[in-house]
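Backbone description:
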Amino acid sequence: MGLAAFALLAGLLRLDWQLPPLSLRLPAQHGPLMVSGFLGTLISLERAVALSQNQGGRRRYYLAPSLVGLGAVSLFLTLPAAVPRGLSTLGAMGLALIFVVIYRLQPTTDHAVMGVGALLWLVGNGLWLVGWPIFRVAPWWAGFLILTIAGERLELTRVLPHKKSTRQVFNEVAVLLFLLVTAVVAIRGKRKTRPQE
């Protein structure tokens, strides 16, 4: 919750609200704080908890959310930019690996979708690490969030009480809608990240 509060404060500072000064870099870090610091940590932690319980309490899966959380906290310190960016990138890599393990245990469409979302987050954080500006990284981060939400909605369709034939039709429609939304997001993201001529 502390990271969410910091991200909210960063957003308010960007809106020129008069708040006590927290950090000179805070307003510029609103996007990374929200995507990695809050949502990335939360999503990674959720999957790490589920996987560690499934794997007999193995705690190594908690490394991913820990790295992302440390990366967010380090944004407030006077450290080189590579430190928070590197920690966030390592945490995103951890989430991608978590989804590899999850998919091997349960090879379903929803897990594949969320795994692709984690890969988009990893690419976005990697580009941020090498110095891309946030406005060019944002479509990759948006893809991570959109695919994670879509994958979680697909995951919920497996637990809804439906008759078998109705469930099959519902799943087919959900997958088709998902593919349509993914294509629109990919096309718009490709257009936005294309360099200006």
About this structure: The chain is about 75% helix and 0% strand. The helical segments are 2-14, 30-54, 63-74, 82-105, 109-129, 134-157, 164-193. The CA atoms of residues 128 and 134 lie 7 Å apart.
